[in-house]
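Long-time lurker, finally posting.

We've been working with histidine kinase (Methylobacterium oryzihabitans) and I want a structural starting point before designing mutants. I don't trust myself to interpret raw outputs, so I'm hoping someone here can both generate the structure tokens and explain anything notable. Sequence follows.
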Amino acid sequence: MTADRLIAEIAAPADPAAADETEALRRRVAKLERINAALMSQVERSTSQPGSAYALFQTAVTLEGQVRARTEELTALMRSLERSNGALTAAKEEAERANRSKTRFLTAASHDLLQPLNAARLSLSALSDMTLGAEALGIVGQVERGLQTIEDLIKTLLDISKLDAGLVQPAPRAVRVADVLAGVEASFGPLAARKGLRLTVRPGSAWVSSDVVMLQRIVQNLVSNAIRYTVTGGVLVAARRRGGGVRIDVIDSGSGIPEADRDLIFEEFHRGGRESVDGEIALGLGLSIVRRSVSALGHSLALASRVGHGSRFSLSLPACAPEPPRPPVALALPSSLAGARIAVIENDRAALEALARLFQRWDAYALAARDHLSLVRLMPGSTWGPDAIIADYHLEGGACGLDTVAWLRAVHGHDIPAIVTTADHSAEVEAAVRAAGCELVHKPIKPGQLRALLAHLLRKS
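Top reply, 14 upvotes:
Generated this for you. Predicted structure of histidine kinase:
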């Protein structure tokens, strides 16, 4: 009901004087309505202005709601990330445990596998020293190559496992590139010549900071791979300065690598579509070792290739200042083993028998035993002393060959030259052997290397 109608109903029965008063009241109500409308219009205009208090209040309320919503979203996201990080950490720890377990298994398995392999190689060496026909010598050569392939496979798998588990810690130092490449030329020159390939080495004069053993392994694998898959032409190995570093390029004129295979060639057991090359079994592990070693050293490796034209592997290294020259060390020429008395302690019976046969062929006298007590019983008397000792590191019952070496030295009152043999490549074993003042030879033993080292030690003593 409007104000006019209400006034009309109230004032209807009134007299004329009352009618005037009613009209005055109506005008006042209309005036109040106009004032109210004006005030409402002003309030509405003021609330729509950005700087007004009410607008700021509304904006603050809206922003508070938005901040609260975004905060809740961010909190949920952070919790999700925490759960994801926890899962990733657990997965990483599980992978590391698996890698360590795999490495321990491969280490133990390689030790057990290298023991009979060592005996086979020693026996084969003794066989090759006998008078044999051409056909028999050819068979001996085939067996030797087969044993070498098995040995390379076992050692390479163990190296890959150690790199994956992070057990290989590089020891970078100043290395002259020419020294690394000189070994490459000496090792692969005859192989390239047999295939009718040119092997060109341009070492330069640069020095780099790297682990010399790992760097040699990388370059050797790259050169070996290049020669293996090159049929005509040649292989170039060149070191060049590039900016603040040094780049070693291994370039071949082989068949090249298709774009789709350029990542696959670094995977284990990828043989480029061929199981063997030039009669050699292609293991497909060389470039896998290269990739892992390069990553461990923090170097970089690039590949450029054109199908039908060849490939280029480029290894980039940090340059460094040359190492101060060292005085040359005069090495005595090896002498004969004839008449030498050798104490041999070897856990594996087949390897022990093979070593005894080898020393017999070399005109040396070997006192061979499988453990410490057996050696003591075999010794001719308290005055008999060996000229050199060859001791297996791991003996039966947890005994160590170093203990027998120490006992023999104590009994005879001087440091008898000693060689410790083992299939265990761990740093702990190497440190223990070095600390005892012994030479370390890893199994399988190369007879020529053993004979040269023994002759050198006997000459020094």
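Before you design anything, note these points.
The first strand starts at residue 173 and ends at 176.
Residues 53-128 form the longest helix (76 residues).
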